[in-house]
Structure formats: C-alpha cells, structure tokens
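Friendly challenge for the regulars: who can give me the structure tokens for this chain first? No prize, just bragging rights.
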Amino acid sequence: MTVIVVGGGVAGLVAARELVLGGEQVLLLEASDRLGGIVAHQTVGDILIDTGAESFATRRGSVAALATSLGLADAIVEPNPEGAWLRKSTGESLPLPATSMLGIPGVPLAADVVAVIGRKAAWRAMLDALMPGTIGARSHTLGTLVAKRMGEGVLRELVAPVVEGIHSRHPNELVIDRAAPTLRQALLREGSLARAVRDLRSPAKAGTAIQGIRGGMNRVVEELVADIERFGVEVRLNTRVESVAAGTVVVDGETLVGDVVVAAPHVAGAAVGIPDEDEQVTVVILVVDNPALDSFPRGTGVLVATGSDGVTARALTHSTAKWPWLAERVPAGRHVVRLSYDTTTAPADLESVARADAEALLGLPLGDVVALARADWRRPAPQGDAVEGVWLTGEATGGTGLANVVAHATATAQALLAARADDEVPNAERR
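First reply, four minutes later:
Bragging rights claimed.
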C-alpha cells in the first residue's frame, strides 16, 4: 500500500526519502510548481542567492547528518566568526554579547551585556543566580522563561531581537523545547539560566551555532529531489489536496488510499494550519556595488530591537561578510545584503525603504544597487491536536528551523516504517 506524503517542502522531501529507502512505495503531492518550500533561491544580479533559509542550527546534528548522507559533507561551511551586531531601541548599534544563546547572556554583568541592556537590567538578570533552578523551568515559551529568570530588560533588549531575527517570532510565541531542546534540562542541572547557557555554549567554538552549505542551502533540496526521483518516488506538482483522513487523500474528487503523512502547512482534515494570510515574512535581497563594505562595518549583520526609530526592517544579514564562499563568487567591491520584514513592517515602497534601512543599519551610504529581489514567506501556526491515523510533520508540528524540521520528519518516517513493519494501525498521537 502506497504512503502518500502531502507537501513537498523540506519535511515532505525528507520523509519521502526516508520512506522510500525503507522499502515503501511513495507518492508525493505538492500544491505549488516547485519543491523545497522555504528553502528557495533566485538569481539576483547574476548571483544565485538563497531567498529563504540560508543556514541551519547545528543543534541535534540533523541537518549536517542529512547533508552528509546526500554527499554534501565537504560543502558544510562555518560562517565568519566575527558575529553580528544589535541595534538597540535607542538607535545605537553594538556587537552582540559574545557568550550567549538565543540572546540569553551567559554572564549578565559582562561589559558587552551591560552596554546593550544597561546596568540596572544587568543586575536584575544577576538575580537568576540566586533563584532555585526550578523557577521558570516549567515555562512553556522562551519569553516567559527569560522574563522570570532574568527580567524584562534582557527579554526586550537582547532575546527578542535575536529570536525575531532568527525565528521570525517573538520569544513569547516560541516553545522552549522547540527553540532550544536542551535548555530546560541544563537549567535544572546547573541551577541558573546563565550557567545553563555557559554550559551549553562552552563545548562549541565561536560561530558554530549555525552552519551553511557552500553554494547555498538550495543544494540540499536539489540532492533530496534527485534522490527521491532516483529511488522511484512519484511526484505530482500543482496538485492541491482537498482533504485528508485516516488512510485517504482526496485530490480533484479522486480518493487515494494509503497511509498519509501531512507535511504541508494547511490541509483540510488535518490539525495543521496557518494564521491570517497577512502573517508572513518578507525577505529583500540587495546586490550593491560599494567597496566600503569590504571592511564589514557591522560584522555579519544587525538584529533590530523593537521600537528602534528610523528602521523598519527586523534584521539585516551582510551575506558576503557572513559567508566567505559567497564573497568569492561576486566581483570585487560588490556585496549582497539581505533584509527581513514581518507583517507589520513590510514596506510598500520596497527599494527606497530597504535602501534607507540598510544604510542606517550598516552605518554608511549603501552605494549603487545593482539588483533587488523579494520573497514572501507565510508563517505556519503551531500544530494543534493530532488527527487519528494521519502522521503529521513539518514546521507547524516539529518546530521552527531546519534542525527541528529535518529531525522531526526523519523520526516521523521511521515511526511509520516501524508501524507498517509490525502491521499496526496507528491510534496514538503522531508527534
């Protein structure tokens, strides 16, 4: 009996590959005309550039393991360790604190932390060391945990801009165990949030919290697609699923029968979905000609605190500073700058606003804009109750970020393979 995978983003591709390698017959249905979901690219100014996900978190090791299995081990690269900056709500720009995790400081009274949040907020954060480790340990969201342990100053001035720049969500909307799966256990083990951060960061060298792929994350999708086609997965593009239920999928009035894996953000009959259509992230790519940017004036980019006057963007990535392989592929003096906007900040006059934001965040005139591109991404809502007999995966279920998506899709496919091997009809929650 065929396994039907609904959704051809990274989760769907990973699940389909795992299932077909496990000996199953697989049908993959994708509503759009392309595979890969948020891992996408465009040619901008003769440069192939990721316009969706451009890196992955090293936690879990799931993406690196996938890339290695796809023959991309030698293409895994580290970003420039110089690090990013933060634009405070006051408009001042400073380097991000060195010892931190998702903006949570490992040393609250360190000079680089005090410079960002102020001495009063830093002393409040130090109370974390005096609290029992159990305080905040049962918090559901990252924002609640940080506020309880270290106060609103750390949450507002450090954690919120970092998390919004990485996950496009406020920390109050981000489930702890999805954003940082080992943080809660480290807090209970170490007895304070700051010590937990130091413990989790100490084994890792600077710059190793994320990695990328030489040539772009799109190479992972290309290899995934090549693999599933090589191993016989049937792929149907431009195929919108009308509804799903246990063991059935309805497409254009036709009922397809098989075990069902939903890896799409919204399918009728499955408890996944997106909020209002306005909930989206807009990415703007600028290719500029300006040798003054060769000095990387703001490191690898700038995260923006809420309320920062004169800037609409939520974050800026200086891509040719962050990724040496990309800098090697552009003419001398030319740079790639990437800005992200959320629903409330996406500008109507895109080019002029993006230019003004880039100049404010980089601290110098931008120079000639050689090319510009835009990509809009909708953010899926967190997954609700599971549907009996339907296997759910993807960002809405497994959590934000490729590390979570790949790990959850792999585990889901393996669980389905085990259930089919035992000839079981799954009745339990599929998460």
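The chain has a mean pLDDT of 87. The longest strand covers residues 368-378. Your move, everyone else.
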